């Protein structure tokens, strides 16, 4: 494989395409016997486990995993089909406390956990790249920067629920883990040199142990274009159509956007059709699928139109403890607005000095909250505890608590 590149030399090096896995593309592991052989091989292997997972986002309902790729020195690469093999915990047990290397681990860990794969330690190459201030942090860009190799990404958005999986898709999947451990080693050395290895360790552990997000309140409000509507009745139509679409998508295991696009829901909410012919006259309902299911969509619209006023959704959305939008702070709490301005300036300066994106120095929501309702008194210790309660890491607190306390005292 390619030698590691110095961080400042990547832009001057010709990128060599990475087109074939070193061990070739083996058969997909889809039987218990084949999985047993993989487990034995990985138990006998050495070093970290490189891992990736493929979903069928945009094609299937939910975020199920349809292919798991793992690679380890001495064991090679295994492409595992988790559909016939939903329990992969034997592989997890076989490698024990070994470090797993993933790129954008937060995307893959929940799906891997559903199949019994719960790493004891991780190294996230995307997070490492962010902490190092690399301008591009996609896997292909990071591979090019660290190893001078070109990694094709043309199959990143395909339907991974397809069976059998095409050979070129499998080659792409195998290459995603082919050099991941080598990338990890280069990034780890750079983190150490930059004095950020401890930061990275905290970030990786945070991602590894992060609980699944709580279900959203009123998820239908995220329908694209809802902000263009006026009146609670139209919002009720959006809610009713969204819920009908969700039920249909779940039943058919199809991405909701393929069942009925958001733009069609918004068009119906604006037009408020009273009959199926009126509904299918809308351009957004001209497709064969939308016309075929038009009676069900009209039924959902009719249900919203028949609601009593007391049952209509609020135009303000559900109440939360989140601060208001920052643009409103100047009128509602000028002192808080000044705190936010000062805090943002601190984060911006640190971001530039440390070559770390502002959002990685502190989660924006935590920054807004400490500015809107700071602890009383707002000293370094109190601010540190406030941020800690909102999942800030110790390295972030060490950088920001004292600075924020000083800034708040002067506004």
From TrEMBL:
This is Ribonuclease D. It comes from the Bacteria. Residues 312-332 are annotated as: Disordered. It comes from Isoptericola halotolerans. Residues 231-311 form the HRDC domain. Coiled coil: none annotated. Pfam families: DNA_pol_A_exo1, DNA_pol_A_exoN, HRDC.
């Amino acid at each position: 494989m390619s030698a590691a590149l110095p961080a400042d030399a990547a832009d001057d090096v010709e990128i060599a395409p990475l087109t074939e896995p070193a061990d070739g593309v083996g058969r997909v592991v889809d039987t218990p016997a084949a999985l047993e052989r993989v487990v034995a091989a990985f138990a006998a292997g050495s070093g970290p486990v490189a891992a990736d997972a493929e979903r069928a986002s945009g094609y299937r309902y939910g975020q199920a995993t349809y292919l798991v790729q793992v690679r380890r020195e001495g064991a090679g690469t295994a492409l595992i089909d988790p559909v016939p093999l939903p329990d992969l915990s034997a592989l997890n047990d076989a490698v024990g406390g070994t470090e797993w290397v993933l790129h954008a681990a937060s995307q893959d860990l929940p799906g891997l956990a559903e199949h019994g794969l719960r790493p004891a330690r991780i190294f996230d190459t995307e997070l490492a790249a962010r902490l190092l201030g690399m301008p591009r942090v996609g896997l292909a860009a990071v591979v090019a920067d660290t190893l001078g190799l070109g990694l094709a990404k043309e199959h990143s958005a395909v339907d991974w629920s397809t069976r059998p999986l095409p050979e070129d898709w499998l080659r792409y999947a195998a290459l995603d883990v082919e050099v991941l451990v080598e990338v990890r080693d280069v990034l780890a050395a750079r983190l150490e040199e930059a004095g950020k290895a401890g930061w990275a360790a905290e970030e990786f552990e945070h991602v590894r142990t992060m609980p699944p997000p709580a279900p959203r309140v009123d998820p239908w409000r995220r329908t694209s274009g809802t902000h263009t509507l006026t009146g609670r009745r139209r919002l009720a139509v959006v809610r009713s159509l969204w819920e009908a679409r969700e039920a249909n998508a779940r039943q058919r295991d199809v991405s909701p956007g393929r069942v009925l696009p958001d733009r069609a829901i918004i068009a119906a909410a604006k037009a408020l059709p009273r009959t199926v012919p009126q509904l299918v006259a809308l351009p957004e309902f001209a497709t064969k699928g939308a016309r075929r299911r038009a009676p069900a969509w009209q039924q959902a619209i009719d249900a919203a139109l028949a609601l009593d006023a007391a049952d209509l959704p609020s135009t303000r959305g559900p109440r939360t403890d989140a601060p208001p939008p920052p643009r409103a702070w100047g009128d509602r709490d000028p002192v808080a607005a000044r705190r936010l301005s000062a805090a943002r300036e601190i984060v911006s300066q640190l971001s530039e000095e440390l070559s770390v994106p502002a959002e990685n120095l502190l989660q924006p929501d935590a920054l807004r909250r400490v500015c809107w309702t700071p602890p009383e008194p707002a000293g370094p210790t109190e601010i540190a505890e406030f941020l800690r309660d909102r999942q800030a890491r110790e390295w972030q607190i060490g950088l920001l608590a004292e600075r924020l306390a000083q800034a708040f005292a002067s506004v």
